[in-house]
TrEMBL record:
<dbReference type="Pfam" id="PF13577">
    <property type="entry name" value="SnoaL_4"/>
</dbReference>
<dbReference type="InterPro" id="IPR037401">
    <property type="entry name" value="SnoaL-like"/>
</dbReference>
<feature type="domain" description="SnoaL-like">
    <location>
        <begin position="3"/>
        <end position="127"/>
    </location>
</feature>
<dbReference type="InterPro" id="IPR032710">
    <property type="entry name" value="NTF2-like_dom_sf"/>
</dbReference>
<protein>
    <recommendedName>
        <fullName>SnoaL-like domain-containing protein</fullName>
    </recommendedName>
</protein>
Length: 145
C-alpha cells in the first residue's frame, strides 16, 4: 500500500476520532477546505462545518457524544497524477450511555474526495449517506417533524 493511501486513510480515521472525542472545532479544521454534504444543504469551510456539528451533535457531561464511529470496507483510489484521490467506505455508529447499553444507532457510507497540497493530503469533499437509522435521539438534535 502506498504512502498516499496511508495518508488518506489517516484522514478518514481522524474524522471518526474527532467526532467521537467531541472535538467539533477539530472537525471544522480537518474539513476546512472541503464541501460537506449530509442530510442538509452542502456546507463549505471550517466555520460552516464546525457550526453544523455544534448545532446537531449532543455532547454529554464527559465532553463526548459517547459514540464510536467504526469505518470499514475502505477503498482508496489515487489519480495517476497523484494530485487528487477518491475514497468510499462504510460507517457504523455505536453509542453507550450510563443508562443505555451499547448499541448501533446508525450505519451508512462515506464518499470522499481529496486534493494534494504542498504539505500533504486534504479533504476536498465528504458526502455522508446514512442508510440505516436507529435511535439517534441521544446523539443528534434532529427535527422529528
Amino acid at each position: 500500500m502506498s504512502s498516499d493511501h496511508r495518508a488518506i486513510e489517516a484522514l478518514i480515521f481522524r474524522y471518526a476520532q474527532l467526532v467521537d472525542d467531541g472535538d467539533l472545532d477539530g472537525l471544522g479544521e480537518l474539513l476546512a477546505e472541503a464541501v460537506f454534504t449530509g442530510s442538509g444543504a452542502p456546507l463549505r469551510g471550517r466555520d460552516e462545518i464546525a457550526g453544523m456539528f455544534r448545532r446537531t451533535v449532543i455532547i454529554h457531561p464527559d465532553g463526548t457524544p459517547r459514540t464510536q464511529h467504526v469505518v470499514s470496507n475502505l477503498v482508496v483510489e489515487v489519480a495517476d497524477d497523484r494530485a487528487s484521490a477518491a475514497a468510499r467506505s462504510y460507517v457504523t455508529v455505536f453509542q453507550a450511555l450510563p443508562d443505555v447499553p451499547l448499541r448501533p444507532i446508525a450505519a451508512g457510507r462515506y464518499a470522499d474526495r481529496f486534493v494534494r497540497r504542498d504539505d500533504g493530503w486534504r479533504f476536498a469533499a465528504r458526502t455522508v449517506d446514512i442508510r440505516l437509522v436507529g435511535d439517534v435521539g441521544r446523539h443528534l438534535r434532529v427535527d422529528r417533524a
